[in-house]
Amino acid sequence: DAMVIQNPRYQVTQFGKPVTLSCSQTLNHNVMYWYQQKSSQAPKLLFHYYDKDFNNEADTPDNFQSRRPNTSFCFLDIRSPGLGDAAMYLCATSREGVRQETQYFGPGTRLLVL
Amino acid sequence: GEDVEQSLFLSVREGDSSVINCTYTDSSSTYLYWYKQEPGAGLQLLTYIFSNMDMKQDQRLTVLLNKKDKHLSLRIADTQTGDSAIYFCAESETDKLIFGTGTRLQVFP
Question: Which of A94, B52, B72, B100 is exposed most, by the fewest CB atoms within 10 A?
Fold first, then answer.
């Protein structure tokens, strides 16, 4: 049973054309995360929501935005994708977001920018 | 800042044991994790260890933690071709994970 779902699995966009990636969860977890993972690199946290509270990492570019309309869904908006934004984008959830909480990852959306 | 380091590659013969090593810097990490990532897929939690433990065994997986040296290892017994993947260790910092660089494990017949 899928717990963290990401759609689409592959997304192609054009340079500068806004794109939205989606994530949904059936775990009813309070915290949702977005990571960017470039080829052969570790996942890098972009931001996370604790319930409705948005927490942005200091080095996340302004080009990246997020929305969480309800507990189940979270969106990643890239306003003007550049070639350097091509990556795998991973969504994750955790129940409470404290040190001892396990994060559950979705399968990821691979973004290609032409 | 926090830094988690791993060796990049490991190649083993099918049936042998694999040992993947990781060093971390945040001595206050409560939990340390091992994740597996197969090609084109997301991260799958394999196992984790609480910082007051030295060892944890889960079927073919054994995690060893040396808190003094800030060293974590994952041993996979009887490695199979299906174990070929990238393995990430991660330490927890408040409400986020800091991942290592990943170790690519290749299993050959």
Answer: B52
pLDDT in tens, A62-101: 999 999 999 999 999 999 999 999 999 999 998 876 655 6
CB pairs under 8 A between A and B: 60
pLDDT reading at B37 higher than 80: yes
Within 8 A by CB and 6+ apart from A58, the residues are: none
Residues of A contacting chain B (CB within 8 angstroms): 4, 6, 31, 33, 40-43, 45, 48, 50, 55, 90, 92, 94, 97-108, 110
Determine whether the interchain pair A105/B99 forms a contact, defined as Cβ–Cβ distance below 8 Å. no
